[in-house]
Amino acid sequence: MTSSGPKVSICIVTYNQEKYVEKCIDSVLAQIVNFEYEIIIADDCSTDETKNILSRYSSAHSDKIKFVSHEQNIGPFRNFVFAHTEARGDYVVHLDGDDYTLPGKLQAQADYLDENPDCAIVWHRMNSIDQSSGFMYEDNYVENGIVYKKIDIVDLISNITIGFNSSKMYRRDYEHRDWLDYYELDFPFNVLKVINKKKYAAFVSDAVYGVYRSNIGISFTHNYEIKIKIYKWLLRYYKDKLIDKSQINAKIALLLLSDLKHRQRTVFYGVYAFLSTCMSFKIQSLRLIHSKRINILTKFKKVDKDLYL
């Protein structure tokens, strides 16, 4: 335990998860660690039995659990920020109320951050359960080699999402910014942590320390408009920062190409197919879309002309 409070804060956000939240909390309470921790649970005005279940757990474990139930629904991302703002630990864990941890998670991640002071965020691998089929499957992080590298800002920008949100542990030193109204919160959060602190992110190991339930709970719709909004935020916020803006522009170019492919317009689908065969796909697509972006985009929708740096 630190002089000012627990070493680790586990922030759990819930909404109508009566079928899963007990397993979530039990999995945290079962963790064996050599430090003090707290559990902060923020419920977004659930209408099922979730609140009653959480109240019972809070009463039974009042020394560890702080439970807050909002009287009105504030939305998943404001609820996320609320829970994480309440954290007092040196390190903060996020956990959605329908996911759960596996033995060893907290100790492994805390040890990693202790031993690697330049790491801002540490994830771990998670198995996924498809609730519609009941099938459990593994992620592809090992095959992609991502668990064995230091993840820098270029990786974050290029991949948008790295690691499950419920596998994250980070240092509690971030500043809140103007991303509260953004539907996709995870990406700006990770970028702020890594760029502002001039640190890197990583996976703790190739071990699996949690289980994610897909096709239930909060919906993270990754559509074109949302992604464009995210990148516009990033470009506006870091327009004058000393970062490699070509990486951001390249990612936007690929995003636009993906949208053209999705719409399956004959001419532009042919352009995409041609570019996808090029060895220098990223460079070629960037040059094409960057030079023709306004003409192409106006065929589909009205787009601001300041999309690129």
UniProtKB/TrEMBL annotation:
Gene3D superfamilies: Spore Coat Polysaccharide Biosynthesis Protein SpsA, Chain A (3.90.550.10). It holds the Pfam family Glycos_transf_2. Keywords: Transferase. The keyword Transferase applies. Residues 9-174 form the Glycosyltransferase 2-like domain. It comes from the Bacteria. InterPro entries: Glyco_trans_2-like, Nucleotide-diphossugar_trans. Coiled coil: none annotated. GO terms for molecular function: hexosyltransferase activity. This is Glycosyltransferase involved in cell wall bisynthesis. It comes from Pedobacter africanus.
